[in-house]
Known about the structure:
The mean pLDDT is 80. The termini are far apart. The longest helix has 11 residues, at 3-13. Helices cover 7% and strands 52% of the residues. It has a single domain, classed as Jelly Rolls (Sandwich). It is mainly beta. Belongs to the tumor necrosis factor family. InterPro entries: TNF_CS (IPR021184), TNF_dom (IPR006052), TNF_ligand_SF_member_8 (IPR053104), Tumour_necrosis_fac-like_dom (IPR008983).
Amino acid sequence: xxxxxxxxxxxxxxxxxxxxxxxxxxxxxxxxxxxxxxxxxxxxxxxxxxxxxxxxxxxxxxxxxxxxxxxxxxxxxxxxxxxxxxxxxxxxxxxxxxxxxxxxxxxxxxxxxxxxxxxxxxxxxxxxxxxxxxxxxxxxxxxxxxxxxxxxxxxx
Length: 156
């Protein structure tokens, strides 16, 4: 089945009193931030078009599951940078080098799952950016690209 739909069903049935968001992401329209698709969970967090706005302070788990498609292999490696932003400042950054010529096939698919635990205050804005959003696979696995935020505890 569709993994994202399974996770969504599980999260909807978990009795929680904490803030949670689980939103599908897609290529950005006019910025480097990934766009949030209005499908998913958004409880005690304000879900805007490109960011999640925190309503309760606390320790949060931010996670992002992204699928990439490299339609043509390059003779040189591709450095893919993913950034979690809090209030438009980099809070966590990951750099992955993919698609080197010796390991490439004609088409390459890759998956990246990032986790970050951080303290967030009321009105903090959380978003994710990619340096190469054109490689985000929205055709084969459009529902598998997600950004999630879960309130882990009240304290640090």
